[in-house]
Amino acid sequence: EFFVDVMTTVLQPGELLVEVRVPQADPGAGAAFQEVSRRHGDFALMGVAAIVTPDAQGNVGGARLVFTGAIPARSREAEELLIGKPPHRDRFGEAARVGALTLDPDSDVHASAQYRKEVAVVLGRRVRLCATRLPIRLAGQRGNEATGPRRVELPAVVAAFELRAVEPSAG
Length: 171
Hints:
The chain is an alpha+beta fold.
């Protein structure tokens, strides 16, 4: 994993992140991100990002759920609850609850760990529902803005991404 602690990554002194590769979204995939913070622009007390891809039968063919705060945390257990099943509010709520159980947020002056977990459940359910309704439109794709797909920015923390770190050249 790239993130190892609060504002700490696996990069060593002298290394620099020079590239992030985000794969193209599958056709029909939808994405959503929501966060809670004390004020606009503050660090998130809790945030959740989701990508949901339907299969040919309209069931959930692929799912990603990532909780953010101090350290991004993907919940594979929550994702597995959804794969192969029809998208449904109760199922999304259960997946969000399971995902929140794996979190170990800190308490601080802004929010308790319990509050952050409760917010994670609510946001997890919301982003899953939104992701099933918001197809990702690829750059350059055209459509009727009133009835066609909406452009949604793909949350980079959700995508399976490849990171490449290099040492700076001596010169």
